[in-house]
Design brief:
- With about 1100 residues, the protein is of the alpha+beta class.
- Among the domains are: about 555-815, Cytochrome Bc1 Complex, Chain A, domain 1; about 825-1025, 2-Layer Sandwich (Cytochrome Bc1 Complex, Chain A, domain 1).
- Helix content is about 45%, strand content about 20%.
- The strands form six sheets. An eight-stranded mixed beta sheet has the order 1-2-3-4-10-5-7-6, sandwiched between helices.
- Helix 2 packs across helix 9 (about 215-225) and helix 31 crosses helix 34 (about 930-945).
- It is globular, with a radius of gyration of 30 Å.
- The two termini are about 55 Å apart.
- Residues about 1-15 and about 1040-1075 have low confidence and may be disordered.
- Bound molecules: zinc ion (ZN).
């Protein structure tokens, strides 16, 4: 173990490099040789502030501002401070300042989290200019927050007028403190760490402690821990390091000087949290021991077991990495050894097994968690687990599989790194700030991934067995048995009731009134807004400062050696493709980005599937990778062999509905560039040498039956289903996938499967043949095309036998609209769900249709003005407690505008308030200030930049934009410019033309899902607005409910094993991808 880190390097003479910028000395420069990322670590000799810049190419800059937050009690100072920091600072003394400045600076919402050892404040911006502008504002909030009594009242704790305990942090902990996860976590830490150790505390704050916490204590904690020498600014992304340090120097360092925080890198009396306190002592587990924890539950059937052991030193990165690979080996997929013994069996011992670790100052904690353990096994399942592990060790490990796992993890790591750049290292770097040494080589060693993988590959069979034995089988275990208790649930409820009653009588009517007044006053004080002139004095950056990943695109012409017309910026790609000139029976679309990978995709149009065969598409999709596939030499691969082989050869594979195009299925295979030919070969095999089997059909239907009931109880699924049923015709494929449709269809399908299995398999095969008609297929290659030797001719051998056919146009969703969908009006449908207590609604009206409509930019800004964070709906609907969230949006593919409100006590009231806002804006009684328009435009720019910040998301967008929407490659820049030009008048005009009709019954339809108790109020609200209301009660029973012995349990088990693809999951994915830019 290295000696205490800071003293060792105290004084500027010891620094390993003489490079400096102002007060900042360079501690380390790490230039990685396997990826284009450079990390520089800097420290101010004046204040001790650390700045770490992770430099790499990309449009988004991320900030992680970390404070090491050690505490020796459960008061929750770290967590409460995290909340209070966002409510104004010395230089910006307004509650909404940071948010409002961020929202006009192409930035994400400022956010934060508090862990056991640190509080990290986060922000992302599009472009470096906005980042540097926000940085000093943010840090002013962190180091010099305006900690006031009024924000303490609203954000931390107060007693309200009804005598109940409240406050944002208090309510958060009320929701967390008695969950099984928190109870187990606190219980084992109390056992493992002695008093005086920081790892023992509840940093979130226990409710009983929050009730007695006061502002002075938080202020005191802040003054001790929130100091420059305990703060690290990690910045990831492309900006000038020099400019970053100069900005810090001229703003943050100056303020630190004013506050007399320029006492060098280690002021007297300062003990480094966790490293130089009692928390650094490594605990011992002297013998196997166990503790029992009760947790409140309605049913007492399933508990949880967590096993904690002391793992290796955090400096031993090789053993830590090996342990996580062993975890993957033991539990990673269906055929993994522990799952085979404990989960994937007739009567499972648990639904999942997780192996993980937590880094502490001087050791690593290893955790094994067994979830949903039937209570009869809670007493000794760890003994069975240990026996199984011993058996695995005796029988030996499958080294072929271990190496395949190492390869796969490495490939996925390389791909992740390429997608998010040096951002992938932010976790390791924050860890290094907390527990590392300014000058040590540890960080550099941790980041040398190729060397690490090389070492892991060279481990022998015996080495793996030794690691398994030493760190998993042998160590003494601390076992936590979490037992469900309905008595505890009742007890907590009655104790809480009694406590509140006592509180009410103690305070008396006078006291309660005083509380109401106090809360009211605090709220009013907090809501004093930042004056508009201050907001407007902060200059909005130019959209031209945002950088975009460049993509070159070209398409070949079917049955020809020629290319379609290519834009000048794609000439390099065109020449490369022309050099490999062959004629293929179909057009091939190429989108080039610099990369180590290439993705081959086949788009399959569902437009030609007859309406009565739509449900079979669901079966086709679910069975796609669970079939038998024959290879060229005649070998037939089983499902398990297929999965192993795909995982071995590819980086990833998927079959899904194309984002935004639910009538297109896309089969995507991603490989290392060198395996391009292999990807094409797999494409051929998976599409044409793939055969459904009756056994698989039966097991999938069984899984489907078990997973359906939960979607009948999920309000968002029911709402989507309701909308699809009302707004679309049968020709909309996904309509056939909804839970209620499947429930009707499944028993009949099952019966046919029993009586005539061959016939059913033939039906699936007929569907496959009709889907694979050449007129319904499109082929695309995305990735580093310039690195491919034979980008076109590689396809020849595998695909030349495909006959030429002109490609049918993609069917757009508006072609599947029902009569109501084409002309919404008057109708409101309310569905009651027995298991919920709040309402979810969606409102539709005609908007504008088509991908190039000239009004789109103005309408989008108008919608953002309504829905953006801190804007109208946020303040008037969310702020007033009318719904947890509300937003309005546009779908140009169906030509609808819509208004959605979720988790609302009364959907009709949320609707009425939204209507008042829009009417008020249109008639001028509610002003539309310019800064709101700017905030909406800025949030659009950030969302766009964030959405296209990875190579694969950008290249995929360029493909759909060009091939499916027929728009130019400069679309993003053109759209952003058009958005910037939108005026207040245009926005108001759009509200009048297109948004107001959404709140008039003649031109709109409303769909609501709510609890049974809410139906009457909501229905009369909509009737008052002029809608014809239909009320339905959802029947959440399924015909097979009685014969499913414990469907929920088995479904969970199967799902966690990655076997079940449920209707609801697809549905959620689909609704997420529904809205188009
Ligand atoms: Zn919180």
């Amino acid at each position: 173990m290295s000696s205490p880190p800071i003293e060792e390097t105290n004084g500027s003479n010891n620094t390993s490099t003489s490079e400096s910028v102002g007060d900042f000395h360079l501690l380390k420069r790490i230039a990685l040789n396997y990826t284009d990322v450079t990390i520089t670590k800097w420290r101010s000799e004046k204040t001790g502030l650390r700045v770490i810049h992770v430099d790499y190419e990309g449009p988004i800059i991320n900030g992680y501002f970390a404070v090491a937050t050690e505490i020796f009690d459960d008061s929750g100072c770290p967590h409460t401070l995290e909340h209070l920091v966002f409510h104004g600072s010395e230089q910006y003394p307004y509650s909404d300042a940071l948010q409002r400045i961020a929202f006009r600076s192409f930035a994400s919402t400022p956010n934060a989290y508090t862990a056991q050892d640190t509080t990290v404040y986060t922000i992302s911006t599009a472009g470096g200019t906005s980042f540097l502008r926000l940085l000093p504002v943010y840090v002013d909030h962190i180091l010099y927050p305006r900690l006031t009594e009024s924000t303490f009242v609203t954000e931390v704790f107060h007693i309200n007028g009804e005598g109940q305990d409240a406050g944002v942090v208090y309510s958060e902990m009320q929701g967390r403190q008695n969950t099984v996860a928190d109870l187990v976590d606190l219980a084992y830490r109390r056992k493992l760490f002695p008093k005086g150790n920081g790892y023992r505390s509840e940093t979130g704050g226990l409710m009983e402690a929050l009730r007695t916490l006061n502002l002075a204590k938080i202020q005191d904690y802040h003054s001790r821990y929130y100091a420059p020498h305990n703060l690290c600014l990690v910045v990831t992304g492309r900006l000038s390091t020099q400019a970053l340090l100069e900005e810090v120097q001229k703003t943050i360092e100056v303020r630190a000087g004013v506050h007399e925080q320029d006492k060098g890198i280690k002021p007297d009396e300062w003990k480094r949290p966790f490293m130089e306190t009692e928390s650094a002592i490594v605990p011992k587990i002297e013998s196997n021991s166990s503790i029992s924890v009760e947790f409140p539950a309605k049913e007492e059937r399933f508990g949880e077991i967590t096993i904690v052991t002391i793992g290796p030193s955090p400096d031993d990165e090789q053993t830590s990495a090996a342990l996580s690979l062993l975890g993957e080996y033991l539990t990673g997929n269906i055929v993994a050894p522990l799952n085979k013994e404990l989960v994937d069996i007739a009567n499972p011992y648990c639904t999942s097994i997780g192996i993980g670790s937590t880094a502490r100052a001087k050791f690593t904690e290893i955790h094994v968690t067994l979830s949903d353990v039937p209570t009869k096994y809670l007493g000794n399942l760890e003994i069975k687990l240990r026996k199984i592990l011993q058996k695995i060790a005796r029988q030996g490990l499958d080294m072929k599989r271990m190496h395949s796992i190492i390869d796969r993890v490495e490939r996925l790591g390389r791909h992740g790194l390429e997608e998010v750049g040096g951002e992938a290292f932010s976790g390791i770097i924050l860890q290094d700030f907390l527990y590392g040494d300014d000058y040590s080589e540890k960080l550099e060693k941790q980041l040398q991934l190729p060397e690490l993988f090389h070492k892991l590959r060279s481990l022998k069979h015996q080495d793996w067995l030794d690691i398994l034995d030493r760190w998993v089988i042998q160590p003494n275990m601390l076992v936590v048995r979490a037992r469900p208790s309905s008595t505890m649930a009742q007890r907590l409820e009655s104790e809480e009731k009694a406590r509140i009653q006592e509180q009410v009588s103690r305070l008396g009517p006078g006291g309660l009134e005083k509380r109401t007044h106090m809360v009211h006053e605090a709220k009013a004080k907090n809501e004093e807004p930042m004056p508009d002139e201050v907001v407007e004095s902060i200059h909005v950056p130019d959209v031209k400062t945002i950088t975009w990943i460049s993509v070159q695109s070209a398409s070949t012409i079917a049955d020809s050696r020629e290319l379609e017309a290519v834009e000048p910026s794609s000439q390099l790609l065109a020449r490369h493709l022309e050099a490999d000139s062959v004629a293929l029976p179909f057009a091939l679309h190429f989108d080039h980005v610099s990369s180590q990978f290439v993705t081959v995709t086949t788009y399959i149009s569902l437009g030609a599937v007859p309406d009565d065969k739509k449900t079979l598409v669901y079966i086709f999709e679910t069975l796609f990778f669970a079939s038998e596939v024959s290879l060229e030499d005649g070998t037939v691969l089983s499902e398990a062999e297929l999965i192993h082989q795909l995982e071995h050869d590819l980086v990833s594979y998927s079959l899904d509905h194309c984002d935004g195009y639910p009538e297109l299925l896309c089969l995507s295979l991603r490989v290392d560039v060198a395996r391009y030919d292999l990807a094409i070969q797999w494409m051929r095999r998976l599409l044409w040498s793939n055969k459904a089997s009756t056994t698989k059909l039966q097991s999938r239907i069984a899984i489907l039956k078990q997973s359906l009931p939960e979607y009948l109880r999920d309000p968002q699924s029911v709402l989507s289903e309701l909308q699809a049923e009302e707004l679309y015709t049968e020709s909309f494929t996904k309509r056939a996938f909804y839970a209620r449709r499947l429930i009707e269809w499944v028993p009949e399908f099952e019966r046919r499967l029993k009586q005539d299995p061959r016939g059913v398999v033939n039906e699936v095969e007929d569907l496959r043949a009709s889907l694979l008609k050449p007129s319904e297929l499109r082929f695309s290659v995305i990735g580093d095309v310039l690195k491919l030797d034979r980008p076109r001719s590689s396809w020849l051998e595998k695909f030349q036998s495909l006959p030429f056919a002109p490609v049918a146009p993609v069917r757009l969703l508006n072609e599947t609209l029902s009569t109501l969908g084409k002309k919404p009006g008057k109708r409101a449908v309310i569905v009651s769900l027995a298991n919920i207590e709040s309402s979810f609604s969606s409102q539709h009206a005609l908007g504008i249709l088509g991908f190039s409509h000239p009004q789109t930019p103005a309408l989008l800004v108008a919608l953002d003005v309504l829905s953006g964070a801190e804007l109208y709906f946020w303040k008037r609907i969310r702020g007033a407690g009318l719904a947890y969230g509300a937003s309005a949006s546009l779908d140009v593919q169906i030509g609808h505008v819509s208004f959605d409100a979720w988790t609302s006590p009364n959907a009709a009231k949320a609707y009425q308030e939204a209507k008042r806002v829009v009417e008020g804006l249109v008639n001028g009684t509610i002003p539309l200030e310019n800064h709101k328009l700017e905030a909406a435009k800025s949030s659009y720019a950030y969302t766009l930049a964030e959405g296209f910040s990875t190579r694969s998301s950008m290249a995929h967008f360029i493909f759909t934009n060009r091939v499916l929407r027929g728009r130019s490659s400069s679309w993003i820049q053109d759209r952003l410019a058009a958005i910037q030009d939108v005026t207040v008048e245009e926005v108001l005009d759009m509200m009048k033309q297109h948004i107001l009709p959404l709140f008039q019954s003649e031109t709109s339809v409303a769909f609501v899902v709510c609890g049974p108790g809410q139906v009457d109020d909501i229905a009369s609200g909509y009737r008052a607005e002029g809608y014809d209301v239909e009320i339905r009660h959802m029947d959440d029973r399924v015909p097979w409910a009685d014969d499913a012995e414990d469907s929920n349990f088995t479904t969970k088990a199967l799902k966690l094993l990655g076997k079940a693809v449920s209707a609801g999951e697809m549905l959620v994915k689909w609704t997420q991808g529904l809205f188009h830019l």
